[in-house]
Amino acid sequence: MAAPKRVRSASSSASPVAENGGSAKKRARRSPTKEDEDVKPNIKEEAEDDDGSDPRFRSVSTTAALERDREHTSFPHEMEQTPLARLYDAMRELSEVKAAKDEKPSKDGVVVYWMRNKDLRLEDNTALSYASAVAQEHSLPLIALHIFSLGDYKSHDRSPRRIDFQLRQLAYLRAELDKLHIPLFTFTQSSERKAIPRILCEKLAEWNAFGLYANIEYEVDELRRDIEVLERTRDAREQGEGWKGQVEFFKDFCIVAPGELLTKQGKPYSVYSPWQRAWAAHINSNLSSFISPQNGPVIANPSSARTHPILEPMFSHEVPTSLPGFELAEQEKKDMERLWPVGEGVTEGIMGRFLKTKMREAKFFEPPLEGDGNEVENPKKDSKIAKYTEGRNRVDWDGTSHISAYLAAGLISPRECVRAVYKVVGGKEVPAGRDTGFGMWIQEVAWRDFYQHVLAAWPRVCMSKPFNLKYDGTIEWATDDDESKFEAWKEGKTGFPIVDAAMRSLKAQGYMHNRCRMIVASFLCKDLLLDWRKGEKYFMQMLVDGDLGSNNGGWQWSVIRIFNPASQSEKVDPNGTYIRHWVPELKSVKGKAIHNPSAALSKAEILKLGYVPPIVDHAEARKKAIEAYKEAAAQG
Ligand SMILES: Cc1cc2nc3c(=O)[nH]c(=O)nc-3n(C[C@H](O)[C@H](O)[C@H](O)COP(=O)(O)OP(=O)(O)OC[C@H]3O[C@@H](n4cnc5c(N)ncnc54)[C@H](O)[C@@H]3O)c2cc1C
């Protein structure tokens, strides 16, 4: 049997617990001072870690190394009671109870990698890589498991589009894993989502599983579910009844995981900019571990796995093509398949196009892969990413990567994104400043990490609570009589062209440009004075890239800003190309009037075009919103 491949997460060692302990913790606690920005990577120094062995290249083959890694993570006071801290506690507690892993694994046992909704890939996948190495070490076959939890999807407003995307990718992965004699087994939990830990542990017992390995999901419900799996396993070990195997959860979703960066005072960051500086310094002072792939590949099961009594029936198991209650209409399904393809080479194609081709005008309702044959000779200077500083602010240009759906569901790892950028720019550091398109883009990817950090440190944001507590229940939102305004917003019929264009683009393609997400969010909670949670929910139900952390963060951020839709429109779509595509009623409107037709045309003329007059007066609405927020702040 081949030796286990080396595995680890990008941020430090192979064990999830160790990643926050030992030297990683020391690094994370370094204060994010100005000097940190100037820290040059010292790869040699980093490679020689303080205990004499390099945790980044540690194999899982020695139990001793794993044991040493099981150092409890200490969270700052503010985070002690968070579900994430409790997950680490539960991992530690489980490791303290005599483990089944100390016993010889049963010859007919299996190893289980639990693939989540956010790590749908085979490459650079921390838990999968680890599970694969454990399977090799013990000469056991590997099973990939995926659970569809309809109750969770419903309660988290998961969009049918994102579910369709997930199912298509799983079907692709099933075929890829099959080539490696690894089955992908899925099951659907239709009701009672809270029963999943019990059902899972029963299945693990039935399969005689040696271990269960998965990547951490930072949302509260998911953390609670994982804590229960750990607790059930601990109880089983203590009572000698039930499934008693190994359980390990890994950091994987972020580049720098929640809990790793703390302020000088040892608290979680609540503000992005200093957090981002610490984030960039952390990456650049551990550069070698971020820019070279660290997770080993998935190793094939022996072909005899096909006749293993547990695995054999799994090989004929198909991934469903839809889930009850989340079906797409036929045309919508076709559109989603065309716009958001999955399969071999797709993420490489999207990133390659962003990193190596020339900026062009936006082609609406086209897949991000749509080739333009515009490869540039000097990507450092002429590529889309090189022009991102301007490109990101123009909705009529093809100026962003369109990788969000793929990152949200984990078809590509965020580390791979950083590596791809680094490959183009080279140098001593991963760029992370606002002065170049490359650095600016990396900063955007950092926002994704930041919002996971917020979820983990302030779990109330998962429970419909505002991050800023002074707005908790203190804003007087417009009443239900205004439901028609919410409908107009959803349908793109508010009479504000940029808002309507953006909302229609969301409905048609499950995606909206970032600038427009900010504009329509501000419009909902300021111009219409409707509760931002209604908008947050609707976005989740429609987006193909819907992600609780980024969506919630984006909404909470927008709540504190007021935009003027007309002047924003002039900035982001100066020629009105975007508007004319999505709001064809306005095709004939010339010049600047496209941004604010009611300033140039009478109500009758607007209606004659088939468009709608504005449903609110922006200047008045603005005044009202400022008042409402002022009052709320005074009360809060
Ligand atoms: C109200 C609102 C809701 C949002 N909801 C989501 C969501 O559900 N899922 C989601 O992935 N993004 C969300 N965003 C962030 C952002 O709009 C999208 O990530 C971006 O538009 C995706 O397009 P892109 O891949 O071309 O981005 P690029 O500009 O190419 O950025 C690259 C990647 O960085 C990350 N990123 C960029 N901007 C942000 C940001 N502001 N916050 C967090 N991550 C970011 C994304 O993963 C993105 O794919 C939201 C923003 C707002 C204002």
From TrEMBL:
The record marks W477, W532, W555 as: Electron transfer via tryptophanyl radical. Keywords: Chromophore, Coiled coil, FAD, Flavoprotein. Residues 1-75 are annotated as: Disordered. InterPro entries: Crypto/Photolyase_FAD-like_sf, Crypto/Photolyase_N_sf, Cryptochr/Photolyase_FAD-bd, Cryptochrome/DNA_photolyase_1, DNA_photolyase_1_CS_C, DNA_photolyase_N, Rossmann-like_a/b/a_fold. One of its GO terms (cellular component) is nucleus. SUPFAM superfamilies: Cryptochrome/photolyase FAD-binding domain, Cryptochrome/photolyase, N-terminal domain. Residues 213-240 form a coiled coil. This is BY PROTMAP: gi|647402450|emb|CDR48705.1| RHTO0S19e02850g1_1 [Rhodosporidium toruloides]. It comes from Rhodotorula toruloides. The gene is FGENESH: predicted gene_13.197.
